[in-house]
């Protein structure tokens, strides 16, 4: 399988077993799905493993090696996956420098730290193929006699023997593959093997020498009595998601831009909402950086969403009124816009500024700047640098009074309670209440101005969009607060539903505006624009339809907030 990162990608699903030198390998031809044993090949393998000085890859259960002597000479990168490990291969063109296409997959982890050899593992391997009735490779059985050297301070030479059963590509993600691994495990243990106590050859090779390596910055443990614990835990979770989605965005995997944007916006929202629990100038700097990164991701995401909507509109059209030229322009323009935006994203992810942002987030988690009221001291911060490259995303700007919806936004009264006290849950509740009041304030503005046709359509729609943004912030805050003991789970769910209702409306607005822009370009080329007007009107209808769910959604938010109560004096009500 070819990866968008310019490398070959495989899913590795295997089981490892420790075995003494004197134990004979059993016959595996009777395993379910195995018709016969293939040829046994012998290989002398030698691999050098690379990592940073503080073992960032190893700690993340990632291995990067340069191996020679077998059927797959080259650079290999192994990443954790839901089932087994994802293995990326690249040619052995440079013996000392890992290839850029593999480093791209771990750039958010390695960042600017240099890579150096940490271990050498030599392996005399006897490899037997287990074949199915059709002659295809069901699995491979490897009998490995290993000699390894840890290159870390205090490292030693180690030798051992192990067996491996690795599924073939056809079974790697199937239930039959899991059954075969289970059956093989029974046979091998009965033959005298033991389940390996080590997850990998590298872990065995390094042994206790890993304790001599520096430790990267870690999240500072906070007392459960501190309201900052829930906030920092949530920040860490979103940091992890940001790092997780980084290589997937680079690889242009489906929905990756959206998920990375969500993590970026949630990080920023948490810092803004819980300012007062955390304090210090570095918060403002991080919020500014995250805002610009989210904006850059948003340009690509908007193009992605609009393209999906355009395709849906075109494929559901049964009028025959959309001519081929209009169809090509509508589909192609957004695809090209997304591709341009994605290239800007990748350039940004390779920039020093982005890597510094990741370092700064780690520094905040390692030493959370607690407010003085919570026993902390504000940390001086630096001024914000220039804008991220490519963050000058164009805004859609179309006005059409005839496009105004005939939907009336209901009036909603704010019912946030004032809370006092210094218990962690009470402090978090106060921040939730502030976010709820902001949501209700924006709701009132939207209800007041949405039907005011003296205002430009986009101004009125922006008030509705502001409601969605406030709901999103409140949802993120509720997610953080619910882990502290507050009954905020239903509030988070209700805010998500409101966010989705208004998100569907906003998607229709964005799509409608883009259609109008493309129609204008077509008009200047002298093309017929009737089809564009028809699609434009359909998006108006879809937007109005989305808003029908608004009254129930805002009502559920009100009900859910009433159930969020602070815990007085450390006792739950």
TrEMBL record:
Residues 224-559 form the CHAD domain. CDD domains: CYTH-like_Pase. Pfam families: CHAD (PF05235), CYTH (PF01928). Residues 10-209 form the CYTH domain. Residues 369-406 are annotated as: Disordered. It comes from the Bacteria. Gene3D superfamilies: CHAD domain, Hypothetical Protein Pfu-838710-001. Transmembrane segments: none annotated. It comes from Corynebacterium genitalium ATCC 33030. InterPro entries: CHAD_dom, CHAD_dom_sf, CYTH-like_dom_sf, CYTH_domain. This is CHAD domain protein.
